């Protein structure tokens, strides 16, 4: 049986890391696409040369030609610009919207059957625009944010409780921005929800609030440290987790930016929600119950994303 084909649109920091992880996990053959002459070819060759020592079987190539992504099973999109210190993800909107147009049309023309995972920011608006430009079915186009935000939350919680990250679960919903909604009630250490751990005296509400804020600022913290780019290891790892769920039909329950039509009070809107990812793409949106405070936070986040979507429509008349 032929190996799956994974097209990585954007061969920058995240794209290169995605290629490395996909090869190491032998998820399939990898094609790196980028407009920057030589970059995808150079990274592909360098990665292929790591194969003999690592012992993976995966063909890795680089291209500037969309026809080389033909027949891709998965496309992961990181094309665009990352933010610099002092910028919010939303500041990237104008530039990256143009990029989504060319990428969406490239996928539409050459890989219309792929499962598409968008990572380019501002995430929720970009995944919506990418879907519009590509015309692919909604369940085959989603965005990576919740897995990353939840991973950051889990990491900070594991430090606070001094337990293995494997025993910490966490849920972050809403838009991938300052209004994201880390859900304490649905986050646990060894199955014990965070509010119970506060009652047990293992941590305090103040400490938990600080961790939630650090999670919201997780991307900016790294931008501030790196100064010349944004996070790439954890975003790539999260993207690969979603791609693997699709390719192996794992039916993983993962938070991702998905098209929500009829759940959470939304009618046809992309935002971060719990989903099941399997061979059908986003097979289900899991409509968990939110309490009043959580729903209010979620609604505020949705409003922030709506503002970005409207801004996209203002810039690109074809989207209106
Ligand atoms: N088509 C294809 N590739 C493009 C295009 C385009 N129209 N425009 C830019 N690129 C490429 C750039 O040449 C660059 O190699 O996208 C790549 C982006 O890589 P980096 O600048 O290293 O950015 P990265 O850190 O990988 O982040 C990419 O993901 O998390 C988000 O905010 C982040 O929007 C940013 C994206």
From TrEMBL:
<feature type="binding site">
    <location>
        <position position="96"/>
    </location>
    <ligand>
        <name>NAD(+)</name>
    </ligand>
</feature>
<feature type="binding site">
    <location>
        <position position="121"/>
    </location>
    <ligand>
        <name>substrate</name>
    </ligand>
</feature>
<keyword id="KW-0560">Oxidoreductase</keyword>
<feature type="binding site">
    <location>
        <position position="152"/>
    </location>
    <ligand>
        <name>substrate</name>
    </ligand>
</feature>
<protein>
    <recommendedName>
        <fullName>Malate dehydrogenase</fullName>
        <ecNumber>1.1.1.37</ecNumber>
    </recommendedName>
</protein>
<feature type="active site" description="Proton acceptor">
    <location>
        <position position="176"/>
    </location>
</feature>
<dbReference type="Pfam" id="PF00056">
    <property type="entry name" value="Ldh_1_N"/>
</dbReference>
<keyword id="KW-0816">Tricarboxylic acid cycle</keyword>
<keyword id="KW-0520">NAD</keyword>
<dbReference type="GO" id="GO:0006099">
    <property type="term" value="P:tricarboxylic acid cycle"/>
</dbReference>
<dbReference type="GO" id="GO:0004459">
    <property type="term" value="F:L-lactate dehydrogenase (NAD+) activity"/>
</dbReference>
<dbReference type="InterPro" id="IPR022383">
    <property type="entry name" value="Lactate/malate_DH_C"/>
</dbReference>
<feature type="binding site">
    <location>
        <position position="83"/>
    </location>
    <ligand>
        <name>substrate</name>
    </ligand>
</feature>
<dbReference type="InterPro" id="IPR001236">
    <property type="entry name" value="Lactate/malate_DH_N"/>
</dbReference>
<dbReference type="GO" id="GO:0006089">
    <property type="term" value="P:lactate metabolic process"/>
</dbReference>
<dbReference type="Pfam" id="PF02866">
    <property type="entry name" value="Ldh_1_C"/>
</dbReference>
<dbReference type="InterPro" id="IPR015955">
    <property type="entry name" value="Lactate_DH/Glyco_Ohase_4_C"/>
</dbReference>
<feature type="binding site">
    <location>
        <begin position="10"/>
        <end position="15"/>
    </location>
    <ligand>
        <name>NAD(+)</name>
    </ligand>
</feature>
<feature type="domain" description="Lactate/malate dehydrogenase N-terminal">
    <location>
        <begin position="5"/>
        <end position="143"/>
    </location>
</feature>
<dbReference type="InterPro" id="IPR001557">
    <property type="entry name" value="L-lactate/malate_DH"/>
</dbReference>
<feature type="domain" description="Lactate/malate dehydrogenase C-terminal">
    <location>
        <begin position="148"/>
        <end position="307"/>
    </location>
</feature>
<dbReference type="InterPro" id="IPR036291">
    <property type="entry name" value="NAD(P)-bd_dom_sf"/>
</dbReference>
<dbReference type="InterPro" id="IPR011275">
    <property type="entry name" value="Malate_DH_type3"/>
</dbReference>
<dbReference type="GO" id="GO:0030060">
    <property type="term" value="F:L-malate dehydrogenase (NAD+) activity"/>
</dbReference>
<comment type="function">
    <text>Catalyzes the reversible oxidation of malate to oxaloacetate.</text>
</comment>
<comment type="similarity">
    <text>Belongs to the LDH/MDH superfamily. MDH type 3 family.</text>
</comment>
<feature type="binding site">
    <location>
        <begin position="119"/>
        <end position="121"/>
    </location>
    <ligand>
        <name>NAD(+)</name>
    </ligand>
</feature>
<feature type="binding site">
    <location>
        <position position="89"/>
    </location>
    <ligand>
        <name>substrate</name>
    </ligand>
</feature>
<feature type="binding site">
    <location>
        <position position="34"/>
    </location>
    <ligand>
        <name>NAD(+)</name>
    </ligand>
</feature>
């Amino acid at each position: 049986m032929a190996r799956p084909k994974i097209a990585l649109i954007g061969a920058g920091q995240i794209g290169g890391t995605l290629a490395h992880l996909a090869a190491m996990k032998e998820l399939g053959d990898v094609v790196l696409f980028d407009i920057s002459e030589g970059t995808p070819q150079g990274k592909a060759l360098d990665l292929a040369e790591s194969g003999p020592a690592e012992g993976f079987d995966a063909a890795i190539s680089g291209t500037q030609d969309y026809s080389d992504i033909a027949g891709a099973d998965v496309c992961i999109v990181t094309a665009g610009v990352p933010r610099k210190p002092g910028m919010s993800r939303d500041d990237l909107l104008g530039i990256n919207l143009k990029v989504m147009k060319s990428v969406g049309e490239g996928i539409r023309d050459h890989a219309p059957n792929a499962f598409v995972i968008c990572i380019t920011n501002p995430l929720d608006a970009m995944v919506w625009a990418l879907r519009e430009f590509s015309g692919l079915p909604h369940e085959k186009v989603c965005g990576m944010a919740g897995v990353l935000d939840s991973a950051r939350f889990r990491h900070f919680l594991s430090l606070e409780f001094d337990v293995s990250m494997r025993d910490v679960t966490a849920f972050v919903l809403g838009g991938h921005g300052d209004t994201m909604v880390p859900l304490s009630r649905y986050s646990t250490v060894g199955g014990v929800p965070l509010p119970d751990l506060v009652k047990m005296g293992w941590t305090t509400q103040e400490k938990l609030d600080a961790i939630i804020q650090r999670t919201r600022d997780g991307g900016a913290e790294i931008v501030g440290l790196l100064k010349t780019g944004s996070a790439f290891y954890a975003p790539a790892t999260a993207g690969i987790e979603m791609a693997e769920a699709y390719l192996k039909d794992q039916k993983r329950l993962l938070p991702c930016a998905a098209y929500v039509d009829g759940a959470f009070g939304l009618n046809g809107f992309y935002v971060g929600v719990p989903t099941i990812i399997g061979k059908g793409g986003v097979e289900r949106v899991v409509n968990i119950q939110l309490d009043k405070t959580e729903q209010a936070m979620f609604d505020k986040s949705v409003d922030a994303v709506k503002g970005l979507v409207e801004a996209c429509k203002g810039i690109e008349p074809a989207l209106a």
